[in-house]
Amino acid sequence: MGFNVMGEFAALITAFLWAGTSIFFTFAGKQIGSQVLNRVRLTLAVLLLSLTHWFVIGNPFPIDASPERWLWLGLSGLIGLVIGDALLFRSFILIGHRIAMLIMSLVPAISTIFAWLLLGETLLFTQILGIGLTIFGVALVVTDCKNKTPTQINLKDHWLGLLLAFGGAVGQAVGLIYAKKGLVDNYSALSGVLIRMISAMLIVWILALFTKQVKKTFIQLKNHPDAIKFITAGAISGPFLGVWLSLIAVQSSKVGIASTLMALTPIFHLPIGKYLLKEKITIQAILGTVVAMVGIAIIFIC
């Protein structure tokens, strides 16, 4: 394949961790709201990553990073973790989780195009076929979920929601591209994700300061102590381990392949939904899983 298989494996683990993270953050978000959740989860992730960076690298912050790395990884955090997530969360409200996640499955295709345009990466036809099958399988699974969106949707809001979801997908794809540019010369993925998280955390708290939302954050946490437990669990599995492994994936593999495997989060929702949430698993969901696994097999073989 020309790239270390560790990248593909890290991407798969990332998808699994993000599936669990979505459960924890859903429980927390229902209690304190998505904006408070985003600020707190980024803060906890920075604390965890700083301690890990101190233990592994020898200092709590990547002081050896050049201004150019800070620029690319900071842009990655801004576009992927701040703007991209904000657009995605808003699209959930307008068009529902099912349609928004379906559009987010376009991230591999979008990131492949950007990698071709910006990084000069190429993909074999068989790899493109594998990516296509994986996306199709993910789409089958996601579209099989029950639609919790209200039956009556304003046409303007519907199209705005689609546009926002697509913007979220573009944000994630571009964030991966900028992250890869910031990780050149085998730069530490741990240092890279810490820079990315610090940048995003500073931005969301500065925005909270200007919009007078800082006090609200602490009031919400005080009123909902159980949410802290869910955020902590989610921060460990998502912004901490998940994002760290995602950067290892894009550093060790082609962006299109890594982002395709990371897009399998809905697939991992099957066992979580069946055994934790007691959801019914349909034939369409099983078929989607099989198709996605075939796509992954093709990617690995190539």
Describe the overall structure:
The protein has helices at residues 5-32, 34-56, 67-95, 97-104, 107-119, 125-143, 155-182, 189-210, 214-223, 225-252, 255-262, 265-275, 283-301. It is 81% helix and 0% strand. The relative contact order is 0.23. It has one domain. Mean pLDDT is 83; it is low at 147-152. The termini are close together. α1 runs antiparallel to α10, α1 crosses α12 and α3 (67-95) packs antiparallel against α7. It is built from 13 helices and no strands. It is mainly alpha-helical.
Uncertain regions spanning at least 5 consecutive residues:
147-152
Percent range of helical residues: over 70%
Strand content: under 5%
Order of helices and strands: HHHHHHHHHHHHH
Tell me about the largest β-sheet. none
Task: Write a brief structural summary.
With about 300 residues, the protein is an all-alpha fold. The chain has helices spanning about 5-30, 35-55, 65-95, 95-105, 105-120, 125-145, 155-180, 190-210, 215-225, 225-250, 255-260, 265-275, 285-300. The model is unreliable at about 145-150 (pLDDT under 50).
